Each structure stands twice: as C-alpha cells, then as structure tokens.
Amino acid sequence: MDPKNNYSKPSDGGSTPLILALKNEHENVAKALLKVKIIDILAMDVKGDTALHHAAASGFADVVKDLINAIFPEGLPNPIKTILFITL
Fold first, then answer.
1. Contacts by 46-54 with C-beta closer than 8 Å and gap 24+?
2. How far apart are CA 50 and CA 54, in angstroms?
3. 61 CB contacts (<8 Å, ≥6 apart)?
C-alpha cells in the first residue's frame, strides 16, 4: 500500500476504506488497512458507526482487538478489559 494515499478519505456514501472493508466482510483487507498507521480509525460513517462497530457486527474478533489496541495503546482499564475479553 502506498503510504501517500489517503486511506481515510470517505467514499461518496461517507464510509472510509476501512469501514467499507468491514461492512463487506473483507477481514483481510481491514487487517491490511490497519497496518497503515495514517488511517483514521475513529472515523464515522453517515450513521455514526466506526470501524469498531462494524468489526464487532461482522464478528471479526481479531480486528476488534487490533482496533482496541490502536485506540488504547496503553491498555484498557481493567473493568472494561474484563467485560470486553469475556465477550470475545
């Protein structure tokens, strides 16, 4: 992937490439996009959903964990971590 490309630019429908990959259940594409450090992982689609919402809805536990680790690089507070990882 070309790091000069804008992988966070929303489509005409308001979804970023990461959100589109997750909406269309392309887990490997989503994982590749997460390796591009310049993407906006907190971007929202027109409904207000983020990549994390779509990853969870698609059942992509590994992508959910990768997104959480990217959002909270210092780690989750224990109460949230416990609830989340029991769920996953």
1. 46/13, 46/14, 46/15, 49/19, 50/19, 51/16, 51/18, 51/19, 51/22, 54/19, 54/22, 54/23
2. 7
3. 88
Per-residue exposure over 50-77, b if at least 16 CB sit within 10 Å of its own CB, e if not: bbbbbbbebebeebbebbbeeeeeeeee
Nearest by Cα to 33 from 21, 48, 46, 50: 21
Residue-wise pLDDT for 53-70, tens only, equals 999 999 999 999 899 888
Q: State both tokens at 20.
A: 């589109």
In this predicted structure, what is the pLDDT of residue 71? 82
- Helix, coil or strand: residue 76: coil
